[in-house]
Amino acid sequence: MRKVRRFFVDAKLRTKFLLSFTVIILVTVLMISGINYWVSVGAIKRNSAEFSQYLISQIGINLDKRTTDVEQMAFQQFRSSSLGEKLKEMPVKENDVYFRDTYINDFLNELLFNEDYFLSVFIIDGSSKRYSIQRKAVVNYNQELMERLDLKQIQDMRGRALWFRGANDTLYMARALYDIETSKYVGIIAIGLESDYIGSIVTGVHNLMDGDVLILNGDNRLFVPGEVQGGAGAYYLNEKLYLSDTGKEDFKFGGRRYISSVLSTDYDKWKVVQIIDVGQLTRGTESIKYWTISTILVSLLFAFLMAALISKNITRSIRRLLQSMTLFSLDFQHSAIKPMSRDEVGLLTAKFNSMAEKINDLFNSVYREKMLKQKAEYRTLQFEYKALQAQMNPHFLYNTLEAIHSMAKIKGEEEIGELIYLLGKLLRESIGKKGDTLPLEEELDFIRSYLSIHKIIYGDRIELNYAVDERLTGCRVPKFILQPLVENAIVHGIEEKPGKALIRIVCREEGGDLLLEVSDNGVGMEAAKVDRLLSPERYGTVDGENKHTNVGIISVHKRIRILYGDGYGLAIGSAVGEGTTVRVRLPVVAEEGIED
User: Fold this and answer.
1) For range 341-365, the mean pLDDT
2) What is the pLDDT, as a whole number, of residue 399?
3) Given its phi and psi angles, is residue 249 left (phi above 0), alpha (psi -120 to 50 degrees) or beta?
4) Fewer CB atoms inside 10 A, N or C side of the chain?
5) Which residue, among 108, 138, 123, 241, has the nearest Cα to 175 in the 3D structure?
6) Does the pLDDT at position 449 exceed 80?
7) What is the CATH number of the domain that holds 65?
């Protein structure tokens, strides 16, 4: 036994899988009984559907014959009489009217008592005058007939009969009458029949096969048997499943499956539908189903135990190797695995041990280099940014001092004092703040002070517009991110374009992120210049014009990406002569902020 086990352990994977498949195939043979069961049930369903189609075809033939007999009987009675001439007459004298009405009533009596299943006869002449007779005075058949009768529909049928069912299960046939000689419309005749006259056709079908038989007229309305109050038949009619192109439709209702067969007679005069409960068809196979399911369950249990035992032995080494690979992918720390056999998995384990050691050494060296590089890059940006914070744009300082000097001579000390105050406040805020992030409200206060100086300098030439969502003012943002953008807007919105300049600052939330916008109506930029501004590494150097502002914008963009990832940063939209909009996308960070 030990030798056999050792052979299986050291065997090739192909041999192991072959032995496993052999066991599985042997177990699968036991499931043939289950397949036979389902094939048997399918055969019963197919045979029942074919038999159902045959039955409803016989019903259709009988139904067509009986209804045609009634139609022909009424037509022959009309043809062999002078009713057409009487209906065409429009007498004026009272005596002529009496003889005309008497003749029509005699015709109705003769036709009504011609067959025992006739319940009422009804005639409407061309002037809509009504004549009627009925067997039983208890039920007013003719009143119900007039409520259901559509005279225009019957005339449009040009002599073809219209069949429908009344509320008391009385069946009605109505057709238009035309003069034999002139083919001129002279009136309508309608006959009420007992429901058993047609219902007896389907009585024998219920004895042969369980299921509902429905007969629909040309308007797809239920004709016989009685009203369908609920169940599969009502569901079938409500869902209009009889309109299926195949004539056969399987459907579920109330947790049970049904088979339906539909037969349409000539000119779609009738639709005969049979609905069969599949559970009733297969009720005799319960014992087969019990033994089949029992055999399948036992076979599946045995097959599962055998497969689990065999696969566990085959894949034990693979699972250990996979577990080691998973741990290695998480922390790149690898403990050597001792191979349990000398098959392909054992050789693969040995190769993985060697590969993992080399990857671990390589990863450590690359990781250290990457961290050092990232720290150096971030530190460089921090130095650039702090240097940028420590200095003010010479162009701005020059204009401010020049404005102070000019106003000192012309306007007096009040505005000069305001300029000096704002400039001192601006310098204190730009130099005195510690840390890399601050609340958005403080950043906006800094920008308001910065723009107030320019408002005094440029006067009515500059218009400021703020649209700030107050709910976001507590969010923390990187320090000194709006000043380079506002300075860029002023340089291109005021100094390079005559007329009134508009500077607009927007703070809002979009897609779960914080969005800051600085827009102007300045000279704008071409697409190539926008690309060069955000991706200077492609072009080698920064654009020499307005280099200070460009460096500030690039630093803002890089700093945001380092802090929050590539999904955040700046986006610039600009059109020459129309202005520029710079959008800053940041994550929404609560007041506690991130680690600086």
Assistant:
1) 76
2) 60
3) beta
4) N
5) 123
6) yes
7) 3.30.450.20
The sheet with strand 462-468 has its strands ordered as 462-468, 501-510, 513-520, 579-587, 569-575
Give me the mean pLDDT over the 398-415 stretch: 62
Helix, strand, or coil (residue 354)? helix
In a domain, 355, yes or no: no
Residue 43 has pLDDT above 50, yes or no: yes
Q: What share of the chain is helix, strand, coil (3-state, %, to 5)?
A: 60, 20, 25
DSSP 359-377: HHHHHHHHHHHHHHHHHHH
Residue-level pLDDT at 518: 93
Q: Looking at 391-412, list the stretches that DSSP marks H as alpha helix, in order from N- to C-terminal side.
A: 394-410
CA 83 to chain centre: 65
Distance CA 353, CA 333 (A): 11
Question: How far apart are the C-alpha atoms of 521 and 489, rounded to whole Å?
Answer: 8
Euclidean distance between CA atoms 439 and 584, whole angstroms:
15
Q: How confident is the model at residue 572 (pLDDT cuts 50, 70, 90)?
A: very high
Residue 426 has a CB neighbour count (10 Å cut-off) of 20
DSSP-assigned beta bridge partners for residue 29: none
Distance CA 469, CA 479 (A): 19
* Chain position carrying tokens 């599985």: 24
Residue 28 lies in a domain: no
What dihedral angle (degrees, nearest 10) is formed by the CA atoms of 265, 266, 270, 275? 20
Q: Is 0.70 topped by the overall pTM?
A: no
Rg (CA), the chain: 48
The least confident of 66-80, 330-344, 479-493 is: 330-344
Look at residues 70, 72, 67, 71 and name the one whose alpha carbon lies nearest to residue 201. Answer: 67
Q: Would the pLDDT of 168 be above 50?
A: yes
Are the C-beta atoms of 120 and 142 separated by less than 8 Å?
yes
Quote the CA–CA distance of 306 and 298 in Å, as a whole number.
12
Quote the crossing angle between the two packed helices 483-490 and 547-564, to the nearest 10°.
150
Residue 362 lies in a domain: no
Domain boundary among 281, 314, 344: 281
Per-residue model confidence as pLDDT tens digits over 498-521? 888 889 999 999 988 999 999 998
CATH number of residue 512's parent domain: 3.30.565.10
